[in-house]
Amino acid sequence: MIKKRFSSYSTILFFLLLLCPITASTNIPIGDEKIPDSIISLSSGYAIVVDKQHQKIYVFQKNGTFSKVFEAPCSTGQNPGSKQVAGDKKTPNGIFFVTKFLPNPGPPEIYGSMAFPLDYPTISDQRARRDGNNIWIHGTTKTLLPTQSNGCVVLHESDIQRLAQFIFFNKTPVIISEFLRWVPQDQVSPSKNELEKVLTSWHKAFVEKDIKAIDSLYLQGSEIKGKRREDLNNKIKYLTNLDQHFLLEPRDISILRENNNAVIIFDQIYAVNSNNSFQGFYNKLILEKVKNKWYVTDDATPPPTANKNLAQVNNKQNETKSISNEAVRNLVNKWVTSWKSGNMKTYRSCYASNFQSKGMNLSEWVSYKTTIRQNSDNIRIRIENLQISVDDNMAKASFIQYYSSSILNSKGKKTLELKKTGNEWKIYREIM
Fold this sequence. Notes:
The chain has helices at 2-19, 108-111, 123-127, 157-163, 190-207, 211-215, 226-237, 244-247, 310-341, 344-349, 362-374, and strands at 28-29, 34-36, 39-41, 46-51, 56-63, 65-73, 94-97, 102-103, 114-117, 136-140, 153-156, 173-177, 182-184, 251-258, 261-272, 278-290, 293-299, 380-391, 394-404, 409-421, 424-431. It is elongated, with a radius of gyration of 25 Å. A hairpin with a 2-residue loop joins strand 16 (278-290) and strand 17 (293-299). The protein has 11 helices and 21 strands. It is 29% helix and 33% strand. By secondary structure, it is an alpha+beta fold.
């Protein structure tokens, strides 16, 4: 009876949260406020945290102090506790990473417009013989209810679209906990020194080219083998003997913990070229606490670009970004021109098929805009201060719009949110 009453109160509380929705926000400083103790340190990027007890999802960023840049309701598995077997309708606890992006993965009322698969089961999950698969973060167009998923983390459609901008594949940690412990952000976690010692030992062994010492940090049976061992040997073999202080310190270090599991993310620089460009690799140590001692159980396979010259990687990323920016700029110009000329077929082609605005779907929106277009004369539209930001398959274009016609004169800031469908950018949201 007590359990049933508590469940009812939780449901009522959840609906009250929906009536006063917490929308995604950008760079909201929390100053001296508390943060989840699972974020031990965060150098750059974002950390996503899921609180199963209160059915909330957060994103944190650190720039001097921590900022909470996103907060929204979510729905996790129907049954409490961490996932053990396929079909138990539980959401796994642990530290995970998004592996890819799935556009339109299924019926929108179930999956929304996008899904982000997680790398469950991890090595630690497999060691503990936990199974199951297809644990995603995804959206839904239905009313969001607490603890209603089969194991996924589900957000309202508008929130998953906003969350997408903070996700970087295999880079952004997703920490899922049964409940969160909130601590002052300047409080030093007891685990911090323990985990930093593991990183220091790993780094020292790497610098001294002592692969046996690296092996000693791994849980028995989890030592680096096969191609991964060959790759590590090659890095050690070509390690440049320069000044340690300048060359060999790990950079961009983040440390996350969830109960007896932890992840240390860092960039290991191992060479400086004659043109002062760096060579290095992105590394991710997966750790587990066994008998009160931390052991490495796995390490990330570097992304395909990780072994390239870092300056070359940055140049390639900048080149890709420049191409994407130009494609978005062309789409915005096409959108403006088609509206001015009254070419509604071309105008419609600028939008994603699941576009919605003011309660209208794409067909209703185009019909509505066509009526406005037919009743307007002397249409003039001009945009200024176009600013474009691109992050993988998502983009934003913000500008000042000057609009005049026989029935309306207006000036204001407009933002178009876009996503990449195939090789084309499409508008899926307008904000004025």
